[in-house]
C-alpha cells in the first residue's frame, strides 16, 4: 500500500494540473471570443488535451464557469475558519465576506463576472451560484456555533439568517460597484456599506420593538 501512495499522489497532482490548464484556457478564450463564441474543441486545443479528456473533467462549458464561481466559496469558507474563536457570528460573516471579496478582486475576475451577466445562457447559473454560496456559508457559520453556556437552546436559524444577509450584501454591493463611476472604490467598499445599512436598520427595528 505504501508503495502505491506516491503514485496516487502524482496522479492526483497531474489531474489538478490538467484541470487548471483547462480553466486557464477556457477563461482566456471566453474573454477573447465570448462564451457562446467559444467551442469545447478550442478549449481542448488550447489546453493541449483531447476533447474527450475535457469531458472527463467538465460535463459542459457551463461547468467550467461554475468551477470558477465555486472557488469564491472555498475562499469564503477559509476566511471564516481564520476568524477568532468565540467571535459573534454576525461579525464573522461580515468580516469573512469582505476579506474574501478583497482577496478575489482582480480585473480578470471582474471581466468574468461581466461575461456571466451579459450571457443569457449563464445568467441562471448566477442564481445557483448564490444559492450554493449561501448554503456553504450557513454550514461554515453553524460549525462555529457552540451550545449556550447556560444550557439553553441556541438561536434557531441564526447561521442561515446571517448567510442570507451576507450573500444579499454581496449581491447588492456587487451590483452597486458594477454600475458605479469610472473609477469606483474596490468592490468590498460597497459590500461593507450594504452591511452597515443592514445592521443600522436592524438596530432601528430592535429599538422600535422594545418601546
UniProtKB/TrEMBL annotation:
PROSITE patterns: HTH_TETR_1, HTH_TETR_2. Residues 16-76 form the HTH tetR-type domain. GO terms for molecular function: DNA-binding transcription factor activity; transcription cis-regulatory region binding. Keywords: DNA-binding, Transcription, Transcription regulation. Residues 39-58 bind DNA. It holds the Pfam family TetR_N. InterPro entries: DNA-bd_HTH_TetR-type_CS, Homeodomain-like_sf, HTH-type_TetR-like_transc_reg, HTH_TetR. PANTHER family: HTH-TYPE TRANSCRIPTIONAL REGULATOR RUTR, MYCOFACTOCIN BIOSYNTHESIS TRANSCRIPTIONAL REGULATOR MFTR-RELATED. This is TetR family transcriptional regulator. It comes from Zavarzinia compransoris.
Amino acid at each position: 500500500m505504501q508503495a502505491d501512495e506516491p503514485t496516487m499522489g502524482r496522479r492526483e497532482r497531474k489531474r489538478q494540473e490538467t484541470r487548471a490548464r483547462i480553466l486557464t484556457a477556457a477563461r482566456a478564450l471566453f474573454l477573447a471570443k465570448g462564451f457562446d463564441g467559444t467551442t469545447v474543441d478550442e478549449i481542448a486545443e488550447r489546453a493541449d488535451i483531447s476533447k474527450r479528456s475535457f469531458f472527463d473533467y467538465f460535463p459542459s462549458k457551463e461547468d467550467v464557469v461554475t468551477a470558477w464561481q465555486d472557488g469564491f466559496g472555498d475562499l469564503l469558507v477559509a476566511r471564516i475558519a481564520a476568524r477568532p474563536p468565540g467571535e459573534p457570528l454576525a461579525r464573522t460573516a461580515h468580516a469573512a465576506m469582505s476579506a474574501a471579496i478583497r482577496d478575489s478582486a482582480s480585473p480578470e475576475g471582474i471581466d468574468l463576472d461581466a461575461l456571466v451577466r451579459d450571457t443569457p445562457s449563464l445568467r441562471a447559473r448566477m442564481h445557483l451560484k448564490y444559492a450554493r454560496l449561501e448554503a456553504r456559508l450557513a454550514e461554515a457559520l453553524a460549525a462555529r456555533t457552540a451550545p449556550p453556556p447556560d444550557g439553553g437552546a441556541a438561536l434557531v436559524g441564526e447561521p442561515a439568517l446571517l448567510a442570507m444577509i451576507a450573500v444579499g450584501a454581496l449581491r447588492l454591493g456587487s451590483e452597486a460597484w458594477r454600475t458605479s463611476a469610472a473609477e469606483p472604490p474596490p468592490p468590498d467598499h460597497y459590500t461593507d456599506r450594504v452591511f452597515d445599512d443592514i445592521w443600522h436598520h436592524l438596530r432601528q427595528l430592535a429599538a422600535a420593538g422594545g418601546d
